[in-house]
Design goal:
Strand content: 5-15%
Helix content: 40-55%
Number of helices: 27
Bound molecules: zinc ion
Number of strands: 16
Distance between the termini: 8 Å
Strand order of the largest sheet: 1-2-3-4-5
């Protein structure tokens, strides 16, 4: 048997904790009067009307089943869902509360949501105020000239909602208070500052204003630039409940569609670089807020594309920055690329002078690590032993940081050729940098990240594998026969299965799922990542899963039915009841026979691993 199923998962998810702390007999006992019979409880089914109890609860398995008219079952979640007529998330929350488990919030507490909403509104009002001033005020003529000199069209100025803050201590403050915002709210939004004497004044004065937006287009804060030589040249909003500089990407709201369709993003440094790029039709360009790219920014971008190109000033790309990039490559699971700009020019200059030059630069983008090799060796003489040592000392840590084994091996070879020593020699050097080289060089990099660590109790590998296939290959949704939702014993799996059939695509699925399930979904999405299923095997494996799920379901039903039958006989049950139970048993048994027949047929075909489950 393949041991892919035997992944060790240690930490418990909140859902598992709820399950573990929930006594299903107690939960159902609140709705149904249950009597104990053997290891099970029985009662009158709450979902159909009956005189003789055919509703059973199995505390050990945490499940229930109605063998009567409903002929259905599930776990505590599905019972509550059905009984209270609520969705999975609501049932989960209800049971979590009972069990005293706290869950990731479904939505932010309304107070916090309201506060954020209010801050977006204030920022939007400030944006409009600054924007109107730039377009129309007598006092901002100098700024209008500046914008014109930079070659920005009115359309562009409007699209980016550029503005100007007057050379005044409280123009904005007065305006916003006039339209109903309080001083405290303006403080929270970071638009006013409290001076030493307790008086407040506008934070942004006499500056060109760049509204900063999140990916959905909410204005979260501002960047502001002076037009003369005074310092600081740029200031930003402070950290607020809606603004976090390290996760902000300038232009992301306007660039996201192009980043998605072109499957590529270019990160530049300045606001004006972004604006000029967009004006010339390079809409996949964003800026990193004048600082080095951060991990939060990479995580935001990862949802849009894996292909990230950095436009760097030649002087800023130090080894440390490159080392960080290699870390980001590990997050993106893709190579990052770099373009370097001709001596001392900004992207703004390059694009303004010749847009085709920009296009050319992008096409010539080089992988970060290759670029680092060039940069480091450019000033060294590789025939000198001393310089070889320097190059190795700088490049090996970067190579060591590469997680993907084949790429790592590639660059180790490259370095070996460059300094003319054997690879084996470098490998032992590398081993000294990395405490556990075996892991690095193993066939598959094992990431002990949350997604794998979060879900314990690997109890239903077929369900997980089946869902992983279905998520990875959405065309399988059209495959017939599909499993029935009931064939998933696990409520999370059942919920994801039914939601996926209702969702048009992955983003829609994510949006529809309860947040408590999202991490589990990510885990399922990762499940097949590292092993591509051969195209001609996909349907076959799915078919095997479907059959296996059905078999498992029917078998457990049969076992339970036999138990009940034995119990009835033991208790001297009425003949009519026994006959009825027997009759009800015929249908699943027939189905089960059919499943066995199909399984035998499959067994004669060439095997693949899922058949062994
Ligand atoms: Zn029933």
């Amino acid at each position: 048997m393949s041991c892919r199923w035997l992944r060790v998962k240690v930490t418990m998810s909140a859902i598992d904790e709820v399950k573990q702390k929930t006594d299903i007999a107690e939960v159902i006992g609140q709705y149904v009067s249950l009597s104990k019979s053997g290891r099970t409880f029985r009662g009158l089914c709450p979902f159909h009307s009956e005189k003789h109890p055919s509703f059973f609860v199995y505390p050990e398995q945490g499940s229930w089943h109605c063998f009567g008219a409903c002929n259905t079952g599930g776990d505590a979640f599905s019972f509550i869902m059905k009984k209270e007529n609520i969705d999975f998330g609501e049932a989960l929350r209800l049971l979590a509360e009972r069990a005293g488990v706290s869950l990731p919030s479904r939505a932010e507490p309304s107070g916090m949501r309201d506060e954020k909403e209010r801050l977006y509104q204030i920022n939007e009002a400030a944006t409009q105020f600054f924007h109107q001033l730039l377009l129309n005020s007598k006092e901002t003529e100098k700024a209008r000239n500046y914008v014109a000199k930079r070659g920005l069209s009115l359309e562009t100025v409007t699209k980016f909602k550029l503005g100007y803050s007057l050379n005044s201590w409280e123009a904005l403050k007065q305006h916003l208070e006039d339209i109903g915002y309080t001083k405290d709210e303006l403080m929270t939004a970071g638009l006013i500052i409290e001076g030493e004497n307790g008086a407040t004044h506008d934070r942004f004065r006499n500056r060109l204003m760049f509204p900063l937006c999140d990916v959905r287009g909410h204005v979260t804060g501002f960047g502001a630039r002076v037009l003369d030589d005074s310092l600081p040249k740029y200031i930003n909003s402070p950290q607020t409940p809606v603004f976090d500089k390290s996760s902000t990407l300038y232009g992301i709201n306007l660039a996201a569609p192009a980043i998605r369709t072109q499957d590529m993003v270019v990160i530049v440094e300045g606001y004006l670089d972004v604006i000029t790029a967009h004006q010339h039709g390079f809409s996949n360009v964003i800026a990193s807020m004048g600082t080095a790219v951060t991990e939060k920014q990479i995580n935001t971008l990862k949802r849009l594309t894996k292909n990230v190109i950095l436009a760097l000033d030649a002087d800023e790309a130090g080894e440390e920055a490159m080392l960080r990039c290699v870390g980001y490559e590990n997050i993106l699971v893709a190579e990052m690329k770099v373009i370097t700009l001709p001596n001392g020019k900004d992207p703004d200059d390059v694009i303004g002078e010749d847009p085709t030059m920009w296009q050319h630069l992008i096409e010539q983008a080089r992988p970060v690590v290759d670029y680092t090799f060039d940069m480091i060796t450019a000033e060294l003489d590789m025939t000198q032993a001393k310089d070889k040592t320097i190059a190795t000392g700088k490049l090996l840590p970067i190579i060591a940081a590469i997680k993907e084994p084949i790429r790592q091996a590639h660059y180790l070879q490259k370095l070996a050729r460059l300094v003319k020593v054997t690879e084996r020699r470098l490998e032992s050097e590398l081993a000294r940098i990395k405490p556990s080289p075996s892991r690095r060089w193993g066939a598959e990099p094992k990431q002990e990240t949350t997604s794998q660590a979060l879900h314990p109790m690997l109890s239903r590998p077929i369900e997980e594998y089946c869902l992983a296939l279905l998520l990875q290959y959405p065309e399988l949704k059209r495959y017939q026969p599909q499993p029935s939702p009931e064939h998933f014993e696990n409520s999370e799996n059942r919920e994801i299965f039914t939601s996926w059939h209702q969702a048009s695509d992955l983003p829609a699925l994510k949006a529809s799922l309860d947040p408590a399930l999202r991490e589990y979904l990510d885990y399922l999405l990762d499940y097949l990542k590292k092993k591509e299923v051969p195209t001609n095997q996909i349907e076959r494996r799915y078919a095997d899963c479907v059959l296996n799920l059905r078999k498992k379901y029917l078998q457990s039903l049969e076992v339970r039915r036999a138990e009940i039958f034995a119990l009835e006989v033991e208790l001297g049950g009425a003949g009519a009841d026994l006959a009825k139970l027997k009759a009800e048993g015929i249908e699943p048994s027939t189905q089960l026979l059919e499943v066995f027949r199909q399984t035998r047929r499959k067994a004669k075909e060439p095997r693949d691993e899922i058949g062994q489950l």
